[in-house]
Hints:
Layout: E1 2-6, E2 9-12, E3 16-21, H1 25-36, E4 40-42, E5 51-55, E6 60-63, H2 67-85
Parallel strand pairs: 4-6
Antiparallel strand pairs: 1-2, 3-5, 5-6
Amino acid sequence: MIAKISNDFIINTDEIRFILSYKSNSAKEIISNAKKNNNLINATKGKGTRSVIVLKNNEVIASDYNPDTLYNKCSLAVNAIEVNEQ
């Protein structure tokens, strides 16, 4: 399943570990560590970061979409697969 997580960025939703709001202290710490370890993908295209996506391989993606929007996009991708399988 795939979902659009920012303008021009599409990812496999099966690879998502979790999504955080950028406002949380945990998200800011994750971003900081990802920068240090060269594991950060900036998908904001110059816009402000609103959410942080952590993948199963520990890569971190900064997105300009709200966490609720990302959740809805991922849920829609899952629901579309389930409908097609029935």
